[in-house]
Amino acid sequence: MKVFRIRFSYRKAFCTSWLLAFLFLSYWQRIKKNDYAGGSRLVISSNHAEYVLNDNSYIAASSSFENDDLSQSLHSSTGSSTRRRRRHVFNLTEFGAVGDNKTVNTGAFEAAVAAVRAVEGDGGGQIIVGPGIWLTAPFNVTSHMTLFLCQDASIVGIQTESLWPLIPVLPSYGHGHELPGPRYSSLIHGQYLNDFIITGENGSIDGQGAWWWRQHKLRKLKYTRGHLIELLWSSNIEISNVTLRNSPFWTVHPYDCTNVTIHGVTILAPLNAPNTDGIDPDSCRNVLVENCYISVGDNAVAIKSGWDVYGTQYARPCVNITIRNLFARSLISGGVSIGSEVSGGVEDVVVDGLHIWGSRSAVRIKTSTGRGGYVRNISYSNLTLNDVRVAIAIQTDSGEHPNSGFDPRAFPQVSNISFNGIFGSKVRYPVIISGTQEVPITGIEIRNMNLSVTQNKNKKNIFQCSFLQGKVVGYIFPLPCKELVHEI
Questions:
Q1: Fewer C-beta within 10 Å: the chain N or C terminus?
Q2: How many Cβ atoms are within 10 Å of 131's Cβ, its own excluded?
Q3: Which residue, among 206, 203, 186, 184, has the nearest Cα to 101 in the 3D structure?
Q4: Which CA distances in Å does 218 have to 49, 56, 193?
Q5: What is the pLDDT of residues 76-108, one digit of tens each?
Q6: Residues designated as active site
Q7: pLDDT band at residue 59, thresholds of 50, 70 and 90?
């Protein structure tokens, strides 16, 4: 009698998992719609753009977006956001808007928002932005409002600098990120909101950031660039089923907000457009980011909580952040980053199902002496990587200071960071964990890692560790550094 033995191959297992991940992405992009109570769930279907940047211009090399058709009229469906139907529906054209990419529609947006504000006490209102290119300067939004972008609708930010108003610096930063003094408003801006939604049929919001990036590069700006969407001191926020493009600075910046959901969103910028982070939860509570595709010129997601003494005085940590099923690319920075502005503290972060390729790093935590604050109770699982320089990076000596007034004795704490299931190929450095004598890193746990390492001549030192305490569990390849105790 013959006995057949199955020989397990980690290489075959990795190849299979990588193939399944891409099959899932392809399937996810092409789902047309799923009906559920009260409406239809609209899912992105797009050929994601790759961008090229040269010295003189920012060029979209390929930006073909295909949107799914709807079987229901807009007035009978609220798209993906069916948790609350709006009793009042307004079409942007009712307020004189023209979607010809020439007419400046700021007044129409402001009038439509005012109409919604007038019915806030009666369930709020929905503003429908139909097909067309709707040029506008920055405008404010209001509570109990849904901004619905139809298929082939694009809200486009005007490139006239004088039409972007200046707003105060944030209290936890005390300083413009790039320059002292005030900062430019975001294209879509809101403060003290409750119940605000941006959704639709994969319409887009385009910041036309190329002009801002060029001015920044030439050092011609007097103030810090504006975000694409910034919501301050708000609650019950949802952004879903839209494409966000070419932000002048960070793309989505919820600041000191509670209950934020971002799902089914595509965020695009040239891969070396400066500081074009995708999603930056900042001193927020209860944030969910899931099923998103982000390809930008800086961090895909960056979790923050204030800058040096301003952040410690403001004392609003970023707490209970969940990131699931994220596909991301960033040549300049990381897939999911924490910091370096963490002076108010960051804790209870869960990252599950991260797919990163062609990036500088997959996950990164960075802080420095003078920051204060803490980063603790962070969990990463199911990371799939391809062509990534650093899989895991944790640094406690990284980050700029807003001014010379930082406290050199304000030492941050970094503890209880776990990783489980890290697989990939073409990874140059699997782990770089660099604590310092003043700021050691404790409670590191790495389980189940299998990374194919390339382009590294010194393979005996591909784990780089200093001033840390922790352990590795299960199968770990490449071999870990001696500072990490190996438990079977």
A1: N
A2: 14
A3: 206
A4: 26, 11, 36
A5: 333 344 446 799 999 999 999 999 999 999 999
A6: 298
A7: very low
